[in-house]
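One example copied in:
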Amino acid sequence: MSKHPDSQRFTVLLQRWHRGDGAALNDLSKQIQNELHRLALKLMHNESAGHTLQPTALVNEAYLNLLNCDVSYHNRVHFFNLAGRMMRRILVDHARARGSAKRGDGIKCITLEEQHLGAIENIDILALNDAMDALAEFDQPKAEMLELHFFAGLTTAEIAELYQVSAKTIERNTRLAKAWLRQTLQPA
């Protein structure tokens, strides 16, 4: 199974940081910021220039939440799993606040790439969130796998590493979960 090239170093730095080593956090900060910014750009690449939540603001909020979170991160995959969940919550909270303030005007829509959900474009983040929650009610692992893929930007190999299964198993499970989401999100 292929691992992220800096995965072991990242894990060691996470563990040192958790034990109170401030120098480890300094070493991690640039890498974390760069990775979060890459994820934010991916999540928000189709947003208009005037959108009120910019990628940098999403990164900053997620980064602060991760720093203040009292969690012992096991490894890089675990850390970015949590980062993806936080980014999802921030996007959903922002969409809800905008929607309630403007009665639906400005609710964030995202476009997942073709490999994510097929031909569905401009998915309302709130609808996606609700569909992901519904999927989690009856199949939590598949919902988590999609969250890792969509919101944390992890590859199939990285998700397989986290679950300690083959990449083929992850591909099969995510294909089924994506089909379920596609069906759920199709306009009536």
About this structure: The longest strand covers residues 109-110. The radius of gyration is 17 Å. Residues 61 and 126 are 19 Å apart (CA to CA).
